[in-house]
Specification:
By secondary structure, the chain is mainly beta. It has 2 helices and 15 strands. Strands 1-11-12-5-4 form a 5-stranded mixed sheet, with no helix packed on it.
Length: 144
């Protein structure tokens, strides 16, 4: 099985999030999220996305680097930074480490998309979920 630890110009393109507000709250206590796309573990404060089912966590620094609050709508944010992404042709293993700590590990099925935030965090979406969440960057747009 292939393992991907990072996306770059040789294996991925840039995409932007479609304007979909997310409801998120600060969670102080440690938490483990067992998700269909992997297991996340947080040993302290993190953001929990409560508008999705199931809920999932995001590292505080990652969240506030990639999301901005919506004015006049408490606890709602929109993703504002482009991501790198690639669709995998065969099952692929990914791991996400944040500040030297393993946050998530997953097996990505063929046809799904591996997504990488600006800070290097990897996760994945099914092809259907990726199409709902992201679109290709406009040619000529400033890339990070």
């Amino acid at each position: 099985m292939n393992t991907v630890r990072q996306l770059d110009d040789s294996n991925s393109d840039y995409y932007v999030a479609k304007a979909r507000p997310k409801e998120a709250q600060l969670r102080w206590e440690p938490r483990r999220y067992e998700l269909s796309w992997g297991v996340q573990e947080f040993d302290g404060p993190h953001m929990v996305i409560t508008s999705e089912s199931p809920e999932y966590g995001v590292d505080l620094q990652v969240f506030f680097t990639t999301h901005k609050p919506l004015p006049d709508t408490p606890h709602h944010y929109i993703k504002v930074t482009p991501v790198r992404a690639m669709q995998v042709r065969e099952p692929t293993h990914i791991t996400t480490e944040i500040d030297g700590r393993l946050e998530m590990e997953a097996e990505v099925p063929a046809g799904a998309w591996i997504v990488q935030n600006k800070d290097g965090e990897l996760y994945y979406n099914s092809a259907e979920e990726f199409a709902k969440r992201y679109e290709a960057m406009t040619p000529g747009a400033d890339k990070p």
